[in-house]
Design brief:
Length: 327
C-alpha cells in the first residue's frame, strides 16, 4: 500500500498512458521511470488486443476516449482530490477534473463495504479471488493505493471483490473503488516493483496512476517529464541532461573520458564539464552558480542556464512552484 497526503508540497497524482499514445502498452515500470515517479499503480481497464481504454479516459483535462458504461470511474480532480462515481461524458461535466479512467466496481461508500460487482456488469472469473488493485480515501483525506497479489499456487489466491471491499475498510478507507486487476495488478515504489505480479512478470498495460514529487516543468505549455525528477540545489533546478537537451531539439554528445557534454543547436554550441562551474557558449566562458553533476547515475545540468543558452526564456512560478520554458 502507498498512502499519500494529497496536499503535500510538490506532490501530484498523474495519469500516464503507455508510450504517451492511446493504444500503446508499456509495463508499469517503464511508465513510472519515464516520468520520474516515486510510486505508481496500474490504472483502468483496456482492450488487450488493441490497447485502447474501456470506457472513458480523461488526461490533463482532455477527454481522449468515450464509451458509456455503467461502471465506477476513478478520477483525480484539482489539488489531487479523488473522484469516485459514474461518469457519463455525454451528460455530465465535472469541474476541475484532471484525469479519469473507467474502472470499478465501487468497493466502499461512507465507510461501509459494498457488493457492486454484478450491478456494474462484472461476471465469471472476475468475481473470483484474484490479484486486485484499488484506490481509496480515508478520514484524513489521504489517498490509499493498494495492491493484493493473487492467483499464485505457491503464494496466495488473492481476494474476491467483496473481500477487497472489507480490506479497504480495514485500511481506513471511507470510499474506495477497484482498478484493473489480475495480471495487470502492480505497484511500483522507489524504482522497483514491490508486489509479485500473477503472470510471474509485469504485464504491459495501457495506463497508470503515478505519484510525482517534483517541480513541474513546462515547455511551450506542455508538461515535460524526465527519467529522474528535477532537483533543487542552492536555488537552482537541475534536470537530466539528455531529457532537457532533446526537448529543446539540441544534438547531444557525451565524452566519457573527459566527463564533458557538448550540445549543438543551430549556431549555438554549449560545453559543460561535470563538477566544473565554468561552461562555454560558442567558446565564451560563462560562470555557473551550480555545476553539472552526476547523481544516482544521472547526469544533471542546470535547467535555466541550458534553456537560456539555447535561446529559450525561463519563468519561475512561486505558488505553486513550477517552471515555464518558452521557445
Amino acid at each position: 500500500m502507498v498512502e499519500i497526503n494529497p496536499s503535500q508540497r510538490l506532490l501530484e497524482v498523474h495519469l500516464a498512458i503507455g508510450g504517451d499514445n492511446l493504444g500503446q502498452l508499456e509495463t508499469l515500470s517503464q511508465i513510472a521511470k519515464r516520468h520520474g515517479a516515486v510510486a505508481a499503480v496500474n490504472g483502468g481497464f483496456f482492450n488487450s488486443s488493441g490497447g485502447l481504454p474501456i470506457g472513458a479516459l480523461i488526461k490533463d483535462g482532455q477527454l481522449l476516449s468515450t464509451e458509456d458504461l455503467l461502471r465506477t470511474a476513478v478520477g483525480i480532480k484539482e489539488n489531487n482530490q479523488l473522484f469516485l462515481g459514474y461518469y457519463d461524458p455525454a451528460k455530465e461535466s465535472i469541474p476541475n477534473l484532471k484525469h479519469l479512467v473507467t474502472a470499478g466496481p465501487l468497493l466502499v461508500l461512507e465507510g461501509q463495504p459494498l457488493w457492486q460487482g454484478v450491478v456494474e456488469g462484472f461476471r465469471g472469473s472476475i468475481l473470483k479471488r484474484a490479484a486486485r488493485t484499488a484506490v481509496g480515501v480515508d478520514k484524513q483525506g489521504h489517498l490509499l493505493f493498494v495492491v493484493v497479489d493473487g492467483r499464485q499456487k505457491d503464494f496466495k489466491a488473492g481476494l474476491s471483490l467483496e473481500e477487497m471491499a472489507y480490506l479497504m475498510v480495514d485500511l481506513g478507507a471511507q470510499s474506495a473503488a477497484a482498478l484493473d486487476g489480475g495480471g495487470s495488478s502492480a505497484i511500483w515504489v522507489k524504482d522497483k516493483i514491490v508486489n509479485r505480479p500473477s503472470d510471474g512478470k509485469e504485464r504491459k498495460i495501457a495506463n497508470a496512476f503515478l505519484i510525482l514529487h517534483q517541480v513541474p516543468v513546462y515547455l511551450n505549455e506542455k508538461h515535460l517529464f524526465f527519467d529522474a525528477p528535477p532537483e533543487i540545489e542552492k536555488g537552482r533546478v537541475l534536470v537530466p541532461l539528455r531529457g532537457i537537451f532533446e526537448a529543446l531539439q539540441a544534438k547531444v554528445d557525451w565524452d566519457q573520458s573527459t566527463a564533458t557534454v557538448t550540445a549543438v543547436l543551430e549556431d549555438k554550441t554549449i560545453l559543460l564539464t561535470m563538477g566544473k562551474q565554468e561552461a562555454l557558449i560558442n567558446e565564451q566562458k560563462v560562470w555557473l552558480d551550480v555545476p553539472p553533476q552526476i547523481r544516482a547515475g544521472r547526469t544533471m545540468v542546470p535547467l535555466r542556464f541550458v534553456s537560456e543558452a539555447l535561446g529559450a526564456k525561463v519563468i519561475w512560478q512561486n505558488n505553486p512552484p513550477a517552471i515555464f520554458i518558452n521557445k
